[in-house]
Amino acid sequence: MASFLSVSSSSSPYHNHPLLRGKLTATLTNNPTTTTTSPPTTLPIRKIPSDLSLPLLGPLRDRFAYFYTQGRGEYLRSRINRHRSTVLRLNVPPGPPIARDPAVIALLDAVSFPVLFDADLIEKKNLFTGTFMPSLHLTGGYRTLSYIDTTEPEHAPLKKLLFFLLSHRRTHVVPEFRSTFGNLFDSLESDVASAGTADFSEGNDQAAFNFLIRSLFGKDPAESELGTDGPNIVKKWVLFQLGPILTLGLPSLLEDLTLHSIRLPSFLIKKDYDRLVKFFLDSSAGSILDEAYRLGLSKEEAVHNILFSTCFNAYGGMTILFPNVLKWVGRAGSRVQAELAEEIRAAVKAEGGEVTMKAMESMPLMKSVIYECLRIEPPVSLQYGRARKDFIVNSHEAAFEIRAGELLFGYQPFATKDPRVFDRAEEFVADRFVGEEKEKLLSHVLWSNGPENVSPTVGDKQCAGKDFVVLVARMLLVELFLRYDSFDVEVGASALGSSVKLTSLKPASF
Ligand code: HEM
Fold first, then answer.
1. Ligand 1 lined by 309 (C-beta under 6 Å)
2. Does residue 486 have its Cβ closer than 6 Å to ligand 1?
3. Does residue 1 belong to any structural domain of this protein?
4. Ligand 1 centroid vs 289 CA: distance in angstroms?
5. 429 C-alpha vs ligand 1 centroid, how far in Å?
6. What is the CATH number of the domain that holds 327?
7. Rounded Cα distance, 480 and 328, in Å
8. pLDDT tens digits for 273-313?
């Protein structure tokens, strides 16, 4: 993929990940000579502790604890404490009747978690959403790329197609972002002036969708039959897929007996999904579908995948990440905000007032802040993988035998906030990654399903949009601080991430 950013240009394979050099590693047990990572472990082998109990009642009780009585973080933390281990067997939602087997081996530290990125050891077939898979009726009958393992023949051509999608109009990305998000900030500014508050999350939903369609497809949704309906349709469609693992804030028992126990029937969303398909079929005609044809993909498979990646992966990700960025930078306070404003304006001025890639490369604090947002609150926090063969996985303290076929589950925030890797791991430290030495810690920033200093390839399951995501997140801060000296936020919860309102926007004074 043509890289958007020079910072993540390293093409070294995952085996170079510092965690996998030396003692921190996964090692094959059945054939030590084919070890893909590092020398055999010297840590004591420990039986994987188990938190599993009664077959049916256990998973239902655990699901209730995970969503309501404890919450996800506490559910996992309390089990680590109970069994004194960051690698252990436990149940994850939704469990029966939607998922027959909710038992997984949880990897809950910075050492064990990254084994999930090793495509030699880990299969990721139909595991994107975990122990259950949404109906294929929701994706036109196709298993989209996120569900396809690296060994399946469709993986490489589909990933190449998405690399093409993200790069073929790259000169449009910065100008479309500035114009769409510039309009968003204009309207948020007038809301704050008139009402004292403005809903960033709501405005971001529409802006993110319009930006993606304008920059990647050169179309304006408002001028199509879709009008302004895109974001709402996508949100409903995502709910049909992720309902079993979401909370919407309904009364807990009611929500658990419905959303987490019954699949929403896909026919209810079919008409809306068909509107999206028609829109993406029209919008992809020409160079994108020509590329799909060159790659040997059918028009149908290409369109359902382009739709999925644009609406689920890209749009879904931006609607979680952008409010997070405002939340953390808002909370970081006026000193950090003033430093960002100074740095960003000086770098843009040095480029003759233009927001260029070069200007953005000369903003070390801004870059660090985005990485820190991605570290402290990874937008997609759960990852799954199935052992292709027997191997050993290490935690900080012990080594554990994993058997072929076993399902592994990683909770990413416990890896990226591991206090044995990061100082003040629970704190937002704006300049955590500023400077050559501190940049090395980027190998422990894992939001993209891989280390931040490694680029996605057709041979792995790292996010195809990695560089694009970092670029747009950087542009959000650049746009914000070219316009404003500082801002304040009010943060609430939403089904996927945070809901953020702006309560002040102080216009740029220098
Ligand atoms: C904030 C935005 C985003 C986040 C947080 C994000 C996160 C992720 C994560 C965690 C995975 C791995 C999931 C798993 O297998 O367990 C993934 C995979 C993937 N992402 Fe992203 N993503 C984002 C944006 C994008 C964008 C913009 C695109 C491209 C249009 C994209 C396309 C994909 C694809 C195609 C895969 C599967 C890769 C493969 O099968 O090899 N994502 N993403």
1. yes
2. no
3. no
4. 21
5. 25
6. 1.10.630.10
7. 14
8. 999 999 999 999 999 999 999 999 999 999 999 999 999 99
Model confidence pLDDT, tens digit, residues 29-84? 333 323 334 445 689 999 999 999 888 899 999 999 999 999 999 999 999 999 99
Question: Does 311 carry a binding-site annotation?
Answer: no
Distance 462 CA to ligand 1 centre (A): 7
Q: How many structural domains is the chain composed of?
A: 1
Q: Would you state the pLDDT for residue 13?
A: 29
**E strand or H helix at 63, and its extent?**
helix 57-64
Residue 243 counted as domain residue: yes
- Which strand (E) or helix (H) includes residue 27? strand 26-28
What is the domain extent for residue 75?
14-507
In this prediction, residue 16 has a pLDDT band, given cuts at 50, 70 and 90, of very low
How far, CA to CA in Å, does 173 sit from each of 35, 213, 218, 354, 373?
A: 42, 10, 10, 14, 22
Sign of CA dihedral 301, 140, 379, 60: negative
**What is the position in ligand 1's atom list of the atom closest to the CA of 146?**
37
Nearest CA to 330 among 373, 380, 381, 379? 373
Tell which atom from ligand 1 comes closest to the C-alpha of 316: 2
Distance CA 485, CA 488 (A): 11
Determine, yes or no, domain membership for 114: yes
Contact 230, 275 (CB under 8 A): no
Residue 158 structure tokens: 């589909």
Q: Which atom of ligand 1 is nearest to the CA of 385?
A: 16
Which positions ≥6 away from 305 have C-beta within 8 Å?
A: 142, 144, 145, 158, 161, 162, 297
464 Cα: distance to centroid of ligand 1 (angstroms): 6
CA distance 340 to 337: 5
* 4 belongs to a structural domain: no
